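Hi there,

I know you've been waiting on this one. I reran it after we fixed the sequence typo, so this is the corrected version. Both the input and the resulting structure follow.
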Amino acid sequence: MKNRILPPLKPNNRDREYNFYSDELKAQVIYEHLFNNKMHRWMDINVLGANGNTNGRNSANILYYLGLKADYRGFFEGQSIDEVIEILNSKGERYADVVRLLKVQAKTSRLYETVISDIEAQEIEEGNYVEGTKKSYFVNKYERDPKNRKKAIEIHGLNCWVCSFNFEEVYGERGRDFIEIHHIKPLSTLQEAVVINPATDLVPLCANCHRMIHRRKAEILTIDQLKDLIK
């Protein structure tokens, strides 16, 4: 596969959409195009969050700026992202931006897989967390939503917000990318489904601090209250 001839790059130098979107979103567009054979309109809606009236131009212009035209769609289907990064790296500077963004996607994918694994481990430990109340259902549902959890880690990092504990620093490789995620809104606000903002509604906590906040059901502490207890 390494000897397979790549289609020529045909960049169009239109950088408006390329500069508008975050590296994470651009990386996912490139990944869906190269590996999953997705159409532009699908990527506009499912990756870039455009409404149903999109004609696919946003994702198309991201790809066209890099020169990844239609002959690249699905070109690397079935291959690993690390293998493709190695292939494109060997082709020189003209693929530098594509390689950089694929590395972003690889890191994001690994974090997502780690989050899924952590959630599954927690569910197994708790007997699949069969919850008895509506409040508990919504709390666990949102704290454990993989996308929300991953985004909260990306925004806030992996240090506990109360005591600054970092699992990797203490446990090495076994603790890498691990932290529990706490929902800071009071349970009374979760009587029905709500939109969760990982930047303002979720924070990382070590297992000890998380348990102390929730230890008394009738007296759930805030982050500041727990910090005061530690002081």
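Quick highlight: Confidence is low (pLDDT under 50) at residues 125-140.

Best,
R. S.
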